[in-house]
Amino acid sequence: MQKDLQLFTSLAEKLLTAENNDPVVDPIPTSELYEQLDLTLSEEPATDTYFEETLEKLVLNTPRTATKLFFNQLFGGRHPKATLGDLLAVMLNNSMYTYKVAGPQVGVEKEILHKICDRIGYGNDSDGTFAPGGSMSNFMAMLMARDAHAKAIPTEGVTKKMTVYTSIESHYSIPKNAAFMGIGREQVRYIDTNAVGEMVPEKLSAQITKDIAEGFAPFFVNATAGTTVLGAFDPIKPISEICKKYNLWLHLDGAYCGGVIFSSKYTHLVKDIELTDSFSVNAHKMLGTPLSCSIIVTQHKKHLYDSFSNDAAYLYQTDGDDYNLGKTSLQCGRRNDALKFWTLWKSVGSKGLEKMVDNQFYLADVARKYISNHPDYTLYSFDDSISICFNYKNIPAQRLCTALYQSGELMVGFGTFRNQEFVRLVTINSGNEKKDILHFFKILETFVEAHPSLVQSEVFQQ
Ligand SMILES: *Cc1c(COP(=O)(O)O)cnc(C)c1O
C-alpha cells in the first residue's frame, strides 16, 4: 500500500504541474483512443514499470476539470480541503448504511443534513440523505411525492394517470425519472417560462386545472433554483400556493444553484424555500466539493422512511433507525459522500462557503460587464446568475466551442434558450479571480483572430 500511495503522490504532483503549465489538454480523438493509450486488459499482469507509465499517460491525457480554463460544465476547481476529505473516504472505505460499519461518519452526514435543514427553515420533522447525484435526488423527491399521494403505489403499482409539472427550462432528469417511476414521460407537463427563464405560475395553475378536468391526477411540481442553461430561479411562493391548493408535493431542484442558501447576499434568490416539501443541492457544483456530492432534504421525515426503508435482518443488527442511514437511502452499500463536504465546511466555516458563492456571482458580474462593454459580444443571460450566455462576432456557438476544444485552448460549452444558441460561460470555479475571467475572453478573442474562417463562414451563411 505504501508504495502505491507514493505513486499516487507522485502522479498527483505531476498532474498539478501539468494543470498549471497546460490547463487544457489536447483531446484524443475517439478514433485514436485505443491507439494512443494502452487501455487493454489482458490475462497476464503488467510489469510495475509498464503499469506506472501507462497510468501516468492516462492521467495526463484526461480532460483537466480543475483548472482555470475549464468552464464547460456546472462544476470546476479543486478545493484542497474537500479533496482531502474525499481521499480519506476512499481510504476508510465505509459503507454508510449502518452505524456499526460507518461509526462517526454517520454523525458527519447527519450534521450536514441537520445544518442544511436548519438553514432553510425546515422544521423538526425534517431529514435527508445523500443521493448519487442531482438526478437521483430529484428521483427521490418524485418518489416520496408519488407515495405521499397514494400510499398503495409501492405495493400495488401505479394505477392512474399521474402528472408531473416542471418548467420547460428544467433538468432532463425530470422526464427520465418519470419514465423510471412508471409515471411516463408523456405525463410530464412542461410549463412555460417568462423572458428570463422562470416558470410562470399562472400557466402552471391553468395546466393543473385542465389536467384535473381531464381525469389526470397531479401530484408533483418541480421548481428549479438555477436552471441548467440560464441559471434562472423559479418563484417559490406563488408556486407553493398552487401546490397547497391542489395538495401537490413541491420539490426545489437546487442541484446547480441551491448553494445560494449559504450567502446572505444571494439567499433571496430562494426566498420562501421553507414552503417547499423537499430541496436538493449538489455540493459538487456551487460548493466546490469533488463529484459527486448531492444532498436531498425534506420536511417530512416520515415520507423519506415510508419510501426508502425496507427491513433487512442481515443488515440492520445494531443501533436505532436514526443512526442506520440505510433506512433512508436509495442504495444499499453507499460511499461516504459526506466527508468531503464536511472537511470543507469544517475548515472554512459557513462563512467560507458564503465567500465561495459570492465570488462566483462576482466573477459573473465581471464577465457580464466585460461583454456589455465590448460591441463584438451579444449577451443573452441575466443578472443574478453565474451562467453567462453570449455570442462573439455572431459565430455559431457550437462551432466556436468545438473549435476551442479541439485545439486544446478552452473548455466551454453552449446552450439554447428560445431557439437562440449561445456560448455558456459558467463562473462556478470559486478559485478563479477576475483576471482569470478576463483571460478567458482574451484566449477566445486571440483564437478567433487566428482562425478568421470561423467568422467569415458565418457571414457567408447569412
Ligand atoms: C446538474 C443538475 C442536475 C443533475 O445533477 P447530477 O448530479 O448531474 O445528476 C439536476 N438539476 C439541475 C438543475 C442541474 O443543474
UniProtKB/TrEMBL annotation:
<dbReference type="Pfam" id="PF00282">
    <property type="entry name" value="Pyridoxal_deC"/>
</dbReference>
<protein>
    <submittedName>
        <fullName>Pyridoxal phosphate-dependent decarboxylase family protein</fullName>
    </submittedName>
</protein>
<dbReference type="InterPro" id="IPR015424">
    <property type="entry name" value="PyrdxlP-dep_Trfase"/>
</dbReference>
<keyword id="KW-0210">Decarboxylase</keyword>
<dbReference type="InterPro" id="IPR015421">
    <property type="entry name" value="PyrdxlP-dep_Trfase_major"/>
</dbReference>
<keyword id="KW-0663">Pyridoxal phosphate</keyword>
<dbReference type="InterPro" id="IPR002129">
    <property type="entry name" value="PyrdxlP-dep_de-COase"/>
</dbReference>
<keyword id="KW-0456">Lyase</keyword>
<comment type="similarity">
    <text>Belongs to the group II decarboxylase family.</text>
</comment>
